[in-house]
Amino acid sequence: MSSTPKYIDDGCERYIAHSKDVEKSYIEACEWISSLGIDYKKTRFGEYERDVENFIKNKGKTPAEESIKIFNNAQMEASELIRLKETFDNFSTDEIIDSIKKTTSGQRFRNASSKDQSRDFAFELGVASRFIRAGYSVDLRGVSDLVATIDGRKLYVECKRLKSYSQLEKRVKAANTQITNRLKQDKSSKSRGMIALNITDIINADAKMIISETIEQYQKASAETLKDFVLKHRKTLSEKKQKKHLGVLTEFTTQGIIFDGSKENFAFANIREGNIYQYPLKQEEEKFLESFRGKLGDQNIYK
Q: InterPro entries this protein is in (predicted)?
């Protein structure tokens, strides 16, 4: 029975998009929001559109370092919106409208407030998109943050976005307690539960850019950072776990610059790192987890 981190993005591909393609995809994503009856220009996504334009066209009088920070923030948020649009574009409005509205509200910068529910809902939708793009149906209006149906079995997923290390134990306990209650209410003996934690704001609280000479170095550093976090806190990540709890999906996102000194190899990069800290499981449960774990990663947001 294993209880170690297992990467969902192990051996992932690198998806490269030119700035014009990213800009086009972002415009389409904003137009999608508008089609749902939400004036995106009045939301934080309208601000990101202006931030990108100001950076590319060299508008404004912002110092270079601050300008890059603003641009990187806009790029990260744009990537999340593009992912949501590509995933939920074919969903009925009734299924997603409330969640999308909540996602578009909130502060321009993710670390501007200790409480920002818009990012909480964005994280829930982001986790849901992992399962949907893996080929599974997801209910976003159930008793859990989301309920995925995998090979006829329900998986209750409780999502928690952390703002500080001090929240970790409390939020894990709460999530595992919620899962226990969901499973008690479920009449099927095959249903299982799992926690999803976003630790972006505690791993990289100041949203610092990662500068690497190669994308390989950047990916390795990202993977090791998440692995170290999980191994250091594995006892806490197991608080209040019960039978039928599979483990904890952890993820965080960083923005980086790939630069080896030559102008030709300069590029902006975005990594959404993820792994699953697997609780000690019976063979049948481990087999169930392995049936979908690998499919939750290596997903191109531009498809």
A: Restrct_endonuc-II-like
Which domain range does residue 225 map to?
A: 5-296
Q: What is the DSSP string of 198-239?
A: E-HHHHSTT-PPEEESSHHHHHHHHHHHHHHHHHHTHHHHTT
What pTM was estimated for this model as a whole? Answer: 0.90
* Residue 268 in domain: yes
**How far is residue 112 CA from its own chain's centroid?**
19
The reply to whether 302 falls in a domain is: no
Q: 128 in a domain, yes or no?
A: yes
Question: To 10 degrees, what angle do helices 64-88 and 19-35 make?
Answer: 60
Separation between Cα atoms, residue 150 and residue 233, nearest integer Å: 29
State the Cα–Cα distance between residues 185 and 274, nearest whole angstrom.
30
What is d(CA 135, CA 23) in angstroms, rounded to the nearest whole number?
A: 27
- Contact call for residues 84 and 103 (beta carbons, < 8 A): yes
Of 11, 7, 16, 5, whose CA–CA distance to 258 is shortest?
Answer: 16
What's the pLDDT tens digit per position in 277-303? 999 999 999 999 999 999 998 887 766
Which one, of 303, 248, 1, 295, lies nearest residue 151 by Cα? 295
pLDDT tens digits for range 165-224? 999 999 999 999 999 999 999 989 999 999 999 999 999 887 788 889 988 899 889 999
Amino acid identity, position 16:
I
